[in-house]
Every structure is written in structure tokens, then in C-alpha cells.
Design a protein that fits this description.
This protein has helices at residues 4-18, 61-73, 115-127, 157-175, 181-191, 236-244, 250-259, 266-273, 275-285, 289-297, and strands at 24-29, 37-43, 46-54, 89-95, 98-104, 142-144, 147-149, 204-206, 215-217, 223-225, 231-233. By secondary structure, the chain is of the alpha+beta class. The protein folds into 2 domains: 2-104, Phosphorylase Kinase, domain 1, CATH 3.30.200; 115-297, Aminoglycoside phosphotransferase (APH), C-terminal lobe (Aminoglycoside 3'-phosphotransferase, Chain: A, domain 2, Alpha-Beta Complex), CATH 3.90.1200.10. The protein binds adenosine-5'-diphosphate (ADP).
């Protein structure tokens, strides 16, 4: 059941956007999310996707998600640079202790025959978008899952990856007793070799959390990307995450490579890129993920 105050906040957001008096016809819970409560809201002016959580626990989460979605959707003059479909942001607000985000509702569809090809080449074109600052990072912090993601800008990828991605996750795991000093030492040994795994490339616009739960098939059979943790970074981060829990078709990678070729050793770097989401999983879920992290780091003795 959706909370009454959330329905009211969502109605106001929809009213501000549409200018219409909003009547709720039906609400239904949507499963599949990791962090927030999600619902479909059917109204007299259309259907909407509504997510909510405790505002005090995750300050600014939905503001950051809205900014990320808008950045990915980018109203650029050149549709070639905005090739993947992103749900439209209707608005976000906080009321009665709840943060509420309202998005366009995406009706699921069946994958059209060029789904993977268009998804792969679309992601490669999205990755070709560059920050005005020319820096790795972003002008604001955001979240990955329910954890804070730091985006202080750096002029080089390795500096950013170590100080904004890996080190904060190692510190969190140590502070919360999920890992010991051996983990810090193991990462320190990797740090000497990081340059071997990331060819020098300019900062790319990244989805930032592109695992198989964060895309769906839209009603025209196209790929729709959801729930991002956007920043400008190395494109291996999105490619790595796409492989973390399976689900992306080989045609996706072929089309990506044809659009923006990858270095021939790119597959060897995926484990290294995935140390970040794996450490996020150690901090969110603990348990077996630390073993996965250590088995990657054990290569560096
Ligand atoms: P969380 O922030 O809790 O991880 P998500 O944003 O991933 O939640 O959304 C949970 C699920 O809801 C997704 O896996 C997807 O199936 C569905 N979903 C997300 N956004 C939309 C949308 N705009 N329209 C329809 N369904 C959506």
C-alpha cells in the first residue's frame, strides 16, 4: 500500500507539471527495486511511476536522481548524442518526512529485433558526451544504491577512481567492521598497477549503475535506462557493471565496439572496474562479496 501523504505529494507534483486537477484512479506496487518503495499511479491525466523513502535517511537522493536522469536525457540539439531512452522527470519533493520522485511511467514491451544493437551503439554514443569542465567527476555528489557517491572533480581518471570510488568504500567497510587492515594493504598493491588497466581516455558521461536490473524494454521495444548514479568517468565502469550480474547480450558489446572501438584487452579490465560496485555490495550486503573482492586483489602480490 502506498502511504496517503506520498499520494498527496505525488498528486501535487503531477498537478504542478500538468496544470490539471489530479484524480487518482488506481495505485499498484511495483517490485524489483533495491532501495525505495515504488508504485504505479494511474490518474485522470496519465500513469506515473512514484518512488519514495524516508527523507532524513537519504537526504537529497531524489534531487540527485532527477538531475542524473535529466543529464542522461540531455535536451541536446543532436539526437545522436542522446540515443537511449530515459524516463521523463515529472518532479520531486519532500513532505511529511518522505522524499518523493515522480517519473513518466514506462509501459513494458517486447524487445524489438535490433534491441541489443541499438542499446550497445546508443551507449557508445552516450559515452561520447563530454563534461564542459573537462574533468572526471560531477558538480554534485549523488548516491549509488543507498550509499553516498562522491564526485569531486579530478583531471585524471586514476586519481578520481582511487580517491572518490575505492577509498571511500574501503573506509566505510573498515569503519563498520566489515573488513580488516589486510583489505587496505591489498588495495594498496593494486594501486601501483591501475594505469595498466585503464587506457587514457577523456571523461565520458556514464550511467554509473548499469547492471541488468537498471534497464527495461519500453513500449516501442527499445532499451530504457533507469536508476542511474551519473558522473563523468571511464567508460569501462559502465561496461564492467553490465557484466557483473549477467544479462547483456553479446550483440550489445559488438555494436558498442563498432560504434566506439574498445582496446583489445578491455575484457581484462572489467574485474578491476567492478571492484567499485563489489565494494558497494560489501557495504550494502556484506557476506560473500568480500571474497569476490579479495580473489580479484589476490592477483597483485
Ligand atoms: P530503486 O531505486 O529502489 O532501486 P528502481 O528505480 O530501480 O528502484 O525501480 C524499481 C523497478 O521499477 C525497476 O526495476 C523497474 O522494473 C521499475 N521501474 C523503474 N522506473 C520505472 C518507470 N519510470 N516506469 C515503469 N517502471 C519503472
Amino acid at each position: 500500500m502506498i502511504i496517503d501523504s506520498v499520494t498527496q505529494t505525488a498528486s501535487q507534483i503531477i498537478h504542478s507539471c500538468s496544470g490539471e486537477q489530479v484524480t487518482i484512479k488506481r495505485t499498484a506496487s511495483v517490485g524489483g527495486g533495491c532501495i525505495n518503495d515504488a508504485h504505479r499511479l494511474d490518474t485522470n491525466v496519465g500513469s506515473y511511476f512514484v518512488k519514495y523513502n524516508h527523507a532524513a535517511r537519504y537526504p537529497g537522493m531524489f534531487e540527485a536522481e532527477a538531475k542524473g536522469l535529466e543529464l542522461l536525457a540531455a535536451d541536446t540539439e543532436d539526437p545522436e548524442l542522446s540515443p537511449l531512452y530515459v524516463p521523463k522527470v515529472i518532479g520531486h519533493d519532500e513532505a511529511a518526512g518522505y522524499g518523493v520522485l515522480v517519473l513518466e511511467y514506462i509501459e513494458g514491451g517486447n524487445q524489438r529485433s535490433d534491441f541489443w544493437e541499438a542499446f550497445g551503439s546508443g551507449l557508445a554514443r552516450m559515452h561520447q558526451r563530454r563534461p564542459d569542465s573537462g574533468m572526471f567527476g560531477l558538480d554534485h555528489d549523488n548516491y549509488i544504491g543507498s550509499l553516498r557517491q562522491f564526485n569531486q572533480e579530478f583531471d585524471n581518471w586514476i586519481g578520481f577512481f582511487v580517491s572518490q570510488r575505492l577509498d571511500p568504500q574501503i573506509k566505510l567497510a573498515r569503519d563498520e567492521g566489515k573488513a580488516g587492515p589486510d583489505l587496505t594493504n591489498m588495495f594498496a598493491r593494486l594501486y601501483n598497477h591501475l594505469g595498466d588497466f585503464f587506457p587514457e581516455e577523456p571523461p565520458c558521461l556514464l550511467h554509473g549503475d548499469l547492471w541488468s536490473g537498471n534497464y527495461m524494454t519500453g513500449n516501442e521495444g527499445q532499451a530504457v535506462i533507469l536508476d542511474p548514479a551519473v558522473y563523468y568517468g571511464h567508460r569501462y565502469m559502465d561496461l564492467g557493471m553490465s557484466q557483473l550480474f549477467g544479462g547483456f547480450n553479446p550483440t550489445f558489446y559488438k555494436a558498442y565496439h563498432e560504434t566506439w572501438p574498445l582496446d583489445k584487452s578491455w575484457q581484462n579490465s572489467m574485474d578491476i572496474a567492478n571492484l567499485y560496485p563489489l565494494m558497494v555490495h560489501v557495504n550494502l550486503f556484506g557476506g560473500g562479496y568480500l571474497g569476490s573482492v579479495k580473489s580479484i586483489l589476490n592477483r597483485f602480490r
